[in-house]
Amino acid sequence: MLAASCAAAQANATWTFTYTGFHDTGDDVFLPDRQLHGSFTGADGNGNGILERLEITSLILNGKDFVACEPDSNDYYICGAQAFSYTLGGALSFKAGEYGSDPEGWVGGGHYFIAGDGEYMYSYRPSHDERRAWLWTDKTGLVIASPNPEPSTWAMLGGGLLVTAWAARRRGARGG
Q1: 41, 99, 156, 168: which sits with the fewest CB atoms below 10 Å from its CB?
Q2: Which residues cross the membrane (predicted)?
Q3: In the 8-state DSSP scheme, what is residue 47?
């Protein structure tokens, strides 16, 4: 039981990260305080040292989970994480976003992120187009915090330890 709990403790983990400093193309200025906050949850199931798209259960960028929104996609709204890769202790790469339009295609918009490239927003309607982009530069910094096990993992570990302690106590009470 303890071994199973320890294995589960390594299963899913959550990493948090922050990118800081972007070039605002709308105002043509570097914004040193602009941030992109994110997190991702998953496990390196194939043990290759790289967390890949099919191994994550969550990718949150500025508060929106681009894995959780995928089932909401339809003919007029697409949401999801198209690509993801994190080399454990190293490089982070992702492409995620959402976009949509009315059935005729007259009104629509989108918001997407490409790590190492930019955050993009656009909207359109008859006689109006709007686009914004915040681009990565050589001054853009990245901080990734150590992974935290999922709350259910802690519960399983605690349960496993309780069962182990109870079994040891029973053996001790029986004298062997």
Answers
A1: 168
A2: none
A3: -
